[in-house]
Amino acid sequence: MNISDYNSLKNSDEQHFWYKARKVLIDRLLGLYLKEDDGREILNIGAGLGTEAEILKKYGRVTALDKDPETVALSDRSGIRTVLGDIEEVEPEKNKYDCVCCFDILEHLRDDRAALKKIYRALPPGGYLFFTAPAYGFLWSGHDLVTGHKRRYTQGGVKKLLNEAGFEIPLIGYWNSLLLLPVMIYRLAKRAAGLAPKTDARPLPRILNRLLFLVLNLENNFIGQSIPFGLSIYGTARKKI
Questions:
Q1: Cross-referenced InterPro entries, in alphabetical order (predicted)?
Q2: What is the pTM of this model?
């Protein structure tokens, strides 16, 4: 969760369905490759305001890196060691981290290629990168502008980036497929109407929020299986041994 979305949702009495379901996605994605409490060093690029902390801490010692001071302060409160810094400006120590998490971060970077090369260097041979990113350029909307996105991706584009950085790709897939059509209609309609840019992350009626969570969480039962389309891309990359 970035700071603009947090500020939109902070007065809500229930966690937004997308963030709640994404936490389940992250847990299941890591669980495919990692054992819990295995003493590994984890770098989480983009602190996520601590929303992922309870999951990541299950798999090792977590250090978060974020360039926003307010985000760093909020993440620190969750018990995660959080460092103020920008992956585009700093160079993580070579071979230091057993895995790196990059959840909805690549789309914010000016140079995603350079960042992935830094991540590759920070991992030991056999180390993992876990990632998510927004899909499809044609879905570009005011939400992307407000939240600081530079681009959206396709699976093929992500594969190319990872291969160029040197990674193997044991898993890549689409997520949030069931909501693709209604979101596409909603965003294209907003674009056609010329509405002012605004984040799509806003408090929802409790019943609707829970219903949407149930719909999206259904897809978490199929993590690791092939779904041909979706609003997000998730995956695992591995540094060659």
A1: SAM-dependent_MTases_sf (IPR029063)
A2: 0.91
